[in-house]
Amino acid sequence: MIGFAIFGAGFIGTVHATNIAAHPRAHLRYIYDVNRRAAEQLAQRLRSTVASSPEEIWSAADVDAVVIASSTNTHATLLSQAIQAGKAVYCEKPVDLEIERVKSVVQEARQSPRPIMIGFSRRFDRNHLAVHEAVQQGEIGKVEMVLLTSRAQEPPPLSYIQVSGGQFRDQTIHFFDLACWLTNEAPVEVYAAGAALVDPAIGDVGDVDTSMLILKMPSGALCHIDNSRRTTYGYDERIEVFGSRGMVQSRLKPLREISLYRDHQVISPGPYPSWFERLEPSFATALDAFIRVLEGQQVVYPTLLDGLRAQLIAEAALLSLRQNVPVKITYWQPA
Amino acid sequence: MIGFAIFGAGFIGTVHATNIAAHPRAHLRYIYDVNRRAAEQLAQRLRSTVASSPEEIWSAADVDAVVIASSTNTHATLLSQAIQAGKAVYCEKPVDLEIERVKSVVQEARQSPRPIMIGFSRRFDRNHLAVHEAVQQGEIGKVEMVLLTSRAQEPPPLSYIQVSGGQFRDQTIHFFDLACWLTNEAPVEVYAAGAALVDPAIGDVGDVDTSMLILKMPSGALCHIDNSRRTTYGYDERIEVFGSRGMVQSRLKPLREISLYRDHQVISPGPYPSWFERLEPSFATALDAFIRVLEGQQVVYPTLLDGLRAQLIAEAALLSLRQNVPVKITYWQPA
Amino acid sequence: MIGFAIFGAGFIGTVHATNIAAHPRAHLRYIYDVNRRAAEQLAQRLRSTVASSPEEIWSAADVDAVVIASSTNTHATLLSQAIQAGKAVYCEKPVDLEIERVKSVVQEARQSPRPIMIGFSRRFDRNHLAVHEAVQQGEIGKVEMVLLTSRAQEPPPLSYIQVSGGQFRDQTIHFFDLACWLTNEAPVEVYAAGAALVDPAIGDVGDVDTSMLILKMPSGALCHIDNSRRTTYGYDERIEVFGSRGMVQSRLKPLREISLYRDHQVISPGPYPSWFERLEPSFATALDAFIRVLEGQQVVYPTLLDGLRAQLIAEAALLSLRQNVPVKITYWQPA
Amino acid sequence: MIGFAIFGAGFIGTVHATNIAAHPRAHLRYIYDVNRRAAEQLAQRLRSTVASSPEEIWSAADVDAVVIASSTNTHATLLSQAIQAGKAVYCEKPVDLEIERVKSVVQEARQSPRPIMIGFSRRFDRNHLAVHEAVQQGEIGKVEMVLLTSRAQEPPPLSYIQVSGGQFRDQTIHFFDLACWLTNEAPVEVYAAGAALVDPAIGDVGDVDTSMLILKMPSGALCHIDNSRRTTYGYDERIEVFGSRGMVQSRLKPLREISLYRDHQVISPGPYPSWFERLEPSFATALDAFIRVLEGQQVVYPTLLDGLRAQLIAEAALLSLRQNVPVKITYWQPA
């Protein structure tokens, strides 16, 4: 049994905490949240314990790993402390919006022998996983084109957009990671185009809500990503990988497998209404992968460096959008 | 070039005549119809010639084969004459509604060395053909269950139903033939249930418009057929064959391959609106098969005996419907 | 919070117990199994308590409802005791293989004011529920035909078949219930055909493994059911309801929504491999419905009489199979 | 009846000629080809007449319209002559590879009162037409993103690529036109990325075989196009239009609507093997539209200016590819 503590009893924290509680080889020992009442309610429901301070968790001998699901501005500090305390970490992305701060944490993490996983949970969606496996096994030959679609059902509040850093930093970032994961490559260049077509107010705060990007991979493969902040038909996330021997798709997943035939039409339910309903199971799969890593299994998982890589692509994309030129991407390695 | 004459310049006659005219290895030499004006119009359009009498066709040296697409009550006589004249024949089904009359023609045909093909054109639908090929090649192993769906868009006129002999004799008969063709077997027994749910007037003339049947094959395989005279969503014809190694389906064929995603729904066009639009290409494929038979190729095609077989099943089904018991089917072979 | 006890710590008992433990408004107070070790292991995992005897449960003031998931031959007795003790009951089907015994329990249950639900969990599958809702809301008009497909991935052990009463009593029975639930009718007559095509040994013990049935509804609607004990492509359960205004289908549910395009083919994953993987979520939905019934909500649920009804159809189907005639079905009402 | 003459008895010329011959309101009076034998064979098959010179056609009173399907380098001259002769024209694209030459013909055509249609036959594919209609009728609201996929089954010969001007000029050009047609806009800017991944020899002659483009529309809408010269699964052409109220797709069209379920897989036929098999019916639909234009119906059709527009986009795309910057597109109007 692996002893866990969790930072953050909000929406995502509750998801992780519930998954830990339900996992047959994990034990949720502590919950910490600056909102103590939220921590208490969650602890009561899951029969866990509230930690009175982060220090209580760092010094707890029965805590092997922590999940960081608190607000973004606390991630870097908690990561540093976890590294110091020798705890394994599952950290929601991003580590920090400041790239230099992320680099500093990545540098620190070099010292830690414990696994640190970044929460790119889409990698653990069963459909995407099956696509990844097909690609890795050579089912489609050499990858030549990747097409990624990311369309959220409705825009987040403006306040969120201002804090998150905008569409590329909070939405597209998952797909930057998927592009690298699927191709085993990191793009050398990105071109981005976009506009605020859904809501002019999003444009007023300096962001776009509708965008398309082209990434160039070192192998010559090309990657397209399209993003929207709003659909009328539900959450739309799709992957297509085209290669020298074939193509594989992670298609839209319908909410129900029913069809109504009437009046010369076939009417079927659309996809899952929101990203969370669509991707909820991937959080449990991601946690399970993390636990298997801790148990010593050979599992490839998203690392801090993968998180930084996606952020560097996002920054380059933003620059491209603003300057309307393709932008070369420079990566960074810890010393 | 194979010289053709056609009897019947009505709807189906026109379809066949047009296909003959367009076939690179066929020549439509004569058209005959008791309605001379109809024959003339068709002849003009297709640059063919009107025959003044059937005899002109029987004695024409440049007529190798005839298509019989005139009214049902003329089929048997024309077939006899064609056999006497040594012409190959493509005859629309049925030969005659009187079983004894059909047997008599089958007996006569024993004398003829020329191919006689009965118009079970569904066997030549490309999707159904591909299912047939998969089954024959053992892709699904030993056949255990066959499911056939036959739902017309709207009921024919009552006058037609009274002449045609009813649902089993004019609609289900194609599927009795498909069941035999797909399984390489003829059913030993049939059970039929049905009612006039679409239009009570159909019940008043002694027929049903909604029915289900179970056929038992000698191998133990079972076959289901469901029939309706009316849908609101277009013409619905499907085949499913289930066997020891798998299942193969000829699915609904949509009118257009487009999808509209809106308001949490996916809306797509239904199937082809009517049987003719759905099956139109199969008439050309059937004609081409007939021509290849005449050219000496090894092509399996529906024979007069196959037509009689389907009729005998229909008669047994009708008896079963009326007596509400399963009915054994006795087949007949020419001497 | 509703206090639960469960009888049976086997496969299905474990499923129910886990669902109770995870339900936010239920509390699993006791587990009983004649195999005490099994009960203990389950109790430890779910932090529940082992009951030393059924009586302990019947007299427990904190037990409001029981789930009966023990072996079939114990159902009737436990039901009687639960009725005496005033407990609500969720009982796995069947109540008993002896029809007279079932009637006797139904009669007793007339005395009980507490809800008794029979475990027809397919009614709670989300896709089937959506089909049911469409039909009830008149989306397809008046029901004219129902087509139900039930194909298990592999035959159960012969020993199970001998105890369960065979294909109609253990497999088709769920679909007899679905037919009634979907149409709001009970069939007046059934015709059944079948054979042991999958495994002759199944025939040797007097059962069939491949079968087709036609049910006649009082309204004139017809219902087809086909059953197989084996597929090579996974668990195949489908519903199609055809009516005067349209058709609605609960389609095959694919294991993954991915497609591989290669070598002129599209290859996609088949359906869920087994009935349990396909229907697992319906057990939780069924439990939730039961809890909502206990909370006083208006929820239509499968009753003891529904269970008896399905069994009476199964008995008539068996008679039909043996005598090869359609058999009228007589229902029974408690005094 | 509209009298037609055709220039070119090659592959596409034969397609057009056959469609004219089959059209009930058209008459194919003359065929001209520098290869007289080809013209004679086609004329014999279609019962038409060989013209001994273009002049014979220009002066023929019974020729109302001509189809130009000869080699590209003859298009501009024939167009000029047709304009002089007062004939209506259906001209295969492009008018000429030299933009200035095209402009000059467009300028001349200003004088002609007769319709001149450019052969963007994809606009007449039934699926694409239905998508176009949905968009024009506002079914998806305001267009925000267009995604176009164009993947040919195999690369043309190197010799063709050298003559045609490369991927953007011979393949993508159809999709530049579709983008404009679907959005009722012409892009203001294009960014193109590409490489020779399929065959290095294509790179050696200065072209790419794998490419992605982003077009910016005046409204802010974005358009993605991806191109490949090779698939292993057949011809892949798809359209997706995403708007403020929904999304509509012209999906892959499968060769057959059959599915084989076996070994936990569903195997279905891929799309049509090549562009011609997929798009063949659109040539007849395009011809029919042209004839309806000649008959005075209000039909929107692709004009010489539309052809020039697509070429100007292609030139800008090529510049973008070479310079790796987005390139603004300047259009041209005749005086």
From TrEMBL, chains A, B, C, D:
Keywords for this protein: Oxidoreductase
Residues of the GFO/IDH/MocA-like oxidoreductase domain: 129-248
Alphabetized InterPro entries for the sequence: Gfo/Idh/MocA-like_OxRdtase_N (IPR000683), GFO_IDH_MocA-like_dom (IPR055170), NAD(P)-bd_dom_sf (IPR036291)
UniProt KW Hydrolase keyword: no
Pfam families recorded: GFO_IDH_MocA, GFO_IDH_MocA_C3
Keyword Oxidoreductase: yes
Gfo/Idh/MocA-like oxidoreductase N-terminal domain ranges (all copies): 3-120
GO biological process, one term: NADPH regeneration
Gene3D superfamilies reported for this sequence: Dihydrodipicolinate Reductase, domain 2, NAD(P)-binding Rossmann-like Domain
GO cellular component: cytoplasm
GO molecular function: nucleotide binding; oxidoreductase activity
Family as reported in the entry's similarity comment: Belongs to the Gfo/Idh/MocA family.
PANTHER family registered for this protein in UniProt: BINDING ROSSMANN FOLD OXIDOREDUCTASE, PUTATIVE (AFU_ORTHOLOGUE AFUA_2G10240)-RELATED, NAD(P)-BINDING ROSSMANN-FOLD SUPERFAMILY PROTEIN-RELATED
Protein name as it appears in the record: Oxidoreductase
Species the sequence originates in: Thermogemmatispora tikiterensis
